[in-house]
Amino acid sequence: MAFVFYDTETTGSETFYDQILQFAAIKTDDSLNEVDRFEIRCRIQRHILPSPGALKVTGISLEQLSDPVLPSHFEMAASIHEKLTAWSPAIFVGYNSLEFDEDTILFPLESLR
After folding, report:
1. Is 59 left (phi over 0), alpha (psi -120 to 50) or beta?
2. What is the span of the domain harbouring residue 21?
3. What 8-state DSSP symbol labels residue 71?
4. Which is nearest to 65 in space by CA: 109, 18, 102, 6?
5. Alpha-carbon 6 to chain mean position
6. Do β-strands 91-94 and 3-10 pair in parallel, antiparallel, or remain unpaired?
7. In 3D, which of 33, 24, 39, 47 has the Cα closest to residue 3?
């Protein structure tokens, strides 16, 4: 079975108030050989105030937050959903996923149903 290793970068550490700004994942085969990779960023939503500490940790600049070339948050969530569905079935492994990433990923995706 394939493995998918993923991580997110967000505007802060509050899963119900902050926003994912970047998502990255690597799919491997069962021998951990890389098969595919996916990375996407989005622009910040107008009602979100990013934490200065989060911006320092992620290295995301204020200019990058509002880059009109980047997809919206909804478009990014839809792209993540599409990619993870295409990569399924797999074993998903995330960094800090149980304490944080699962909630920030799952809540936006629930609105797609």
Report:
1. left
2. 3-110
3. P
4. 18
5. 8
6. parallel
7. 33
**Helices in the chain by DSSP H: which ranges?**
52-58, 62-65, 73-87, 102-110
Q: Are 106 and 15 in contact (CB under 8 A)?
A: no
Residue with tokens 């990014």, as numbered in its chain: 76
How many domains would you assign to the chain?
Answer: 1
Identify whether the C-beta of residue 12 lies closer than 8 Å to the C-beta of residue 50: yes
CATH number at residue 23: 3.30.420.10
pTM for this entry: 0.80
Residue pair 18/54 in contact (Cβ under 8 Å)? The answer is yes
Strand, coil or helix: what is 57?
helix
Q: pLDDT tens digit string along 62-77?
A: 888 889 999 999 999 9
